[in-house]
Amino acid sequence: MSGTKKVLIIDDDNRNIFALTAVLKAKGYNCLSAIGGEEGLQLLEQQDDIAVVLMDMMMPGMDGYAAIAAMNASPQLKDIPVIAVTAQAMLGDRERCLEAGAVGYVSKPINVDNLTDLLVKYI
Asked: Predicted confidence band at 91 (pLDDT cuts at 50, 70, 90)?
């Protein structure tokens, strides 16, 4: 794993950002965070070394679905993999996230081993 590659966590709940950052830093990942879709897109445009995005799908303002759509519409951002992170674990939610453009899906509470397996694929 390259030390310069970063994970961007986009979530509207600071507790989720704090917990994910702590777990991922302990595993050697460099993390950035944004409190919503708009802020996340700004960070993606400013930082050229973000390897993967962990995207909360249900946020006020620009939700994860809209943020993924905006990323896919941008030549600069469309190739950055997005892993959907959501409390929604109903039938069809995983498929909806993948159809929106996410490369993977983890439900909250997060199974760290599953998340790490996904991150290893994309970093």
From this structure: confident
Distance CA 54, CA 33 (A): 9
Task: Tally Cβ neighbours within 10 Å of residue 82.
Answer: 27
Residues 10, 34 contacting (CB under 8 angstroms): yes
Indicate the CATH number of 6-122 among 3.40.50.880, 3.40.50.2300, 3.40.50.150, 3.80.10.10: 3.40.50.2300
> C-alpha 20: how far from its chain's center?
11
Amino acid at 52: V
Give the pLDDT confidence of 61-78 residue by residue, as tens digits.
999 999 999 999 999 999
Dist. CA 94–CA 84, nearest whole Å: 8
Using a pLDDT cut of 70, give the percent of the chain over it: 97
Task: Tokens 């400013």: give the residue.
Answer: 46
